[in-house]
Design a protein that fits this description.
Length: 298
């Protein structure tokens, strides 16, 4: 009943991953592993390729560096997906997609995950947000891609957009597609999953993020059902702060000053705040001076 699709860095999935699925999923399943050891796929194309090979009515796209702690989690996922209007299910996400490139945690972060790393350099930590949340799920707009589950029926209406390359932005893009198609995405709180990675936000990450938000600029912002009127009134201020944060991130990641100014000007015009442009050059200079002087003349 459940097709589990993985884009793998290895020719074969680890025995530990396969055994964990077998011992916890609790429903009929298939694992479709797309061998990306030669880096011939983007995650967009790998996931589309995996879906084309799937045979079950429910699909889960999942990273290979995870460990499920919940018994019969597949049955739980299927029960949630059978609720009318359900879009994509995940374990981390947020209530707002702004008009400027920003993370899913921009307004309210919704998280239910055990965060670890393979080298055990940091202690494992169970993260639940909002704290003491008691319901089994919470609606969101954007989802993190560590786990994304949906019906095959929905997946036939949306897709991972192969105009993008690499391994970033796929989760934001397809979350927005689901929302605009009239579905509601959710973060689940009745499944425990451990993730052995803390993510990587390099220059490629920000370039893909920028491209995704440009793609959907005419449909943004998208605001979740749980956002209050007071929070809505502060969204323009949030967007200004997030644009300045984007400038800071790009400066630290080695983008050229010309590219930073071009992209920030683009989004400043979208949010009708051209005054912010005058702050950008000095912001780039001081960030590089005190944080990454190797890029100061870039």
């Amino acid at each position: 009943m459940l097709s589990i699709i993985v884009c793998s860095r290895n020719k074969m999935l680890s025995t530990a991953f396969i055994d964990n699925i077998k011992n916890t999923v609790g429903v009929d399943y298939e694992i479709i592993s797309i061998d990306n050891s030669a880096n011939q796929y983007s995650i967009f194309s790998a996931y589309n390729t995996g879906f084309a090979k799937s045979k079950f009515p429910y699909v889960c796209f999942v990273h290979e560096d995870v460990l499920f702690h919940t018994q019969n989690w597949g049955e739980i996922v299927i029960q949630h997906l059978q609720s009318p209007g359900t879009g994509i299910l995940g374990l981390a996400g947020g209530d707002l997609a702004t008009r400027v490139p920003a993370s899913w945690s921009t307004l309210m972060s919704c998280v239910n995950i055990i965060q670890s790393d393979r080298n055990r350099r940091k202690e494992s930590k169970q993260i639940i947000h909002p704290e003491n949340f008691k319901d089994s799920k919470r609606s969101v707009i954007l989802l993190d891609g560590v786990l994304m589950c949906m019906t095959s029926e929905l997946m036939k209406k949306i897709h991972f957009d192969e105009q993008f390359n690499g391994f970033h932005g796929y989760d934001f893009d397809i979350s927005i597609q689901s929302t605009l198609a009239g579905y509601t995405n959710y973060v689940l709180y009745d499944i425990k999953l451990e993730h052995f990675s803390r993510g990587k936000t390099d220059d490629v990450y920000y370039r893909n993020l920028i491209s995704v938000f440009k793609k959907w600029e005419n449909s943004l912002p998208l605001i979740g059902k749980n956002v209050t009127e007071d929070q809505r009134s502060h969204i323009p201020d949030i967007e200004k702060k997030r644009l300045l944060k984007l400038v800071s991130k790009m400066a630290r990641k080695g983008f050229s000053t010309k590219e930073i100014i071009a992209e920030s000007t683009y989004f400043a015009n979208i949010i009708n705040d051209t005054e912010i442009i005058h702050k950008i050059k000095s912001r780039i200079f001081f960030i590089r001076l005190f944080n990454c002087p190797i890029y100061i003349f870039k």
